[in-house]
Amino acid sequence: MKRIAIPAMLAVALGVTSCADMSPSTQRAVSGGAMGAAGGAVIGALAGNAGKGALIGAGAGMLGGVLVNEQSERQTAGQQSR
Predict the structure, then answer these.
(1) Residue range(s) defining the domain that contains residue 22
(2) Which of 40, 55, 70, 72 has the greatest number of beta carbons closer than 10 A?
(3) pLDDT-based confidence at residue 11 (cuts at 50, 70, 90)
(4) Is 11 exposed, middle or buried (0-12, 13-18, 19+ CB in 10 A)?
(5) DSSP reduced 3-state for 1
(6) Residue 60: per-residue pLDDT
(7) What is the pLDDT of residue 4?
(8) What confidence score (pLDDT) does residue 79 get?
(9) Torsion angle of the four alpha carbons 10, 13, 15, 20, in this order, in degrees rounded to the nearest 10
(10) Which of these, 81, 75, 72, 79, lies nearest to 25 by C-alpha position?
(11) Helix, coil or strand: residue 18
(12) CB 13 within 8 A of CB 38
């Protein structure tokens, strides 16, 4: 478990810190994908296939990041129209 946790944490840190020159929507999608991949790799390793878990987690995390971005943009647009 310790062997997988350290690379997963490094992957999350790299994904979050590499977002400096991106738009907010891209940042949310990328950071969601990175966090999902890390979480998926850990869960996948426990289930027996870290690669498959990371791939599924990255897709789910990226989708989550996009949905969060859309909701954030709707709230911002709603506040500006008042």
Answers:
(1) 2-80
(2) 40
(3) confident
(4) middle
(5) coil
(6) 92
(7) 66
(8) 80
(9) -150
(10) 72
(11) coil
(12) no
Question: Which are the contacts of 1, defined by CB distance < 8 A and separation ≥ 6?
Answer: 45, 46
CA distance 1 to 66: 30
Distance CA 66, CA 6 (A): 27
How many CB atoms sit inside 10 A of residue 56's CB?
18
Start-to-end CA distance of the chain, whole Å, equals 51
At 20 the three-state DSSP class reads: coil
φ and ψ at residue 48, rounded to 5 degrees: 115, -5
Spatial CA neighbour of 50 closest among 60, 59, 42: 42
**Helix-, strand-, coil-residue percentages of the chain, each rounded to 5:** 85, 0, 15
Amino acid symbol at 10: L
